[in-house]
Write a structure and sequence with these properties.
Length: 179
């Protein structure tokens, strides 16, 4: 059912995954279900990718940050180099969701460098989602990372040729009080 042709069936299965994972345990999940959860992140239907992102956050809450750091985060971050821009954007959506569950250290050390690197993406939609992601994860980061790493990238995005990128960069700068 998890690979059913009908996306609504796949969506229903995703909703039960955290409950199922909790019942079966982390070892069984990693062995049998992890690859399925990661495959949902690159589904052709947006609703499935969105539900899969929320699913990962619930799994991290269930299995803990150490599990996330070793199992989920590296797989998500690899998607930042995917040729499909939708999959690159899913990386950002996952980082937005996972940063809260994983906390400051993992967000700053593992996720932030990938978001900053993605600021140079050739697709404007990815760049403006980088600005939105920086706005979302900014409160989780320490002030040094905000001032030294995030602020220069947002200022550069604020000079982007795409007006949407400029807008979201300026909004992130004002929300994070980096002006």
């Amino acid at each position: 059912l998890a690979e059913d042709a009908k996306w609504r069936v796949r969506l229903a299965i995703i909703e039960y995954m955290p409950l199922l994972a909790g019942q079966l345990g982390v070892e069984f999940f990693d062995e049998k279900l992890n690859s399925l959860c990661m495959a949902w992140l690159v589904d052709h239907v947006y609703a499935i990718r969105e539900a899969a992102t929320n699913n990962l956050m619930k799994l991290v809450q269930k299995f803990g940050t150490e599990w996330a750091q070793n199992t989920i985060v590296p797989k998500v971050l690899v998607m930042a180099n995917d040729p499909n821009y939708l999959h690159r954007m899913t990386t950002l959506f996952c980082i937005n969701a996972l940063s809260e569950a994983c906390g400051q250290e993992i967000t700053t050390k593992q996720m932030l460098p990938i978001v900053l690197k993605m600021a140079g993406d050739q697709v404007a939609n990815v760049r403006f989602n980088v600005a939105k992601s920086l706005q979302k994860i900014g409160p989780i980061l320490d002030t040094d990372a905000l001032q030294e790493e995030v602020k220069p990238v947002l200022q550069k995005l604020g000079q982007d040729e795409d007006m949407d990128v400029k807008y979201f960069a300026q909004e992130a700068i004002s929300v994070l009080a980096l002006a």
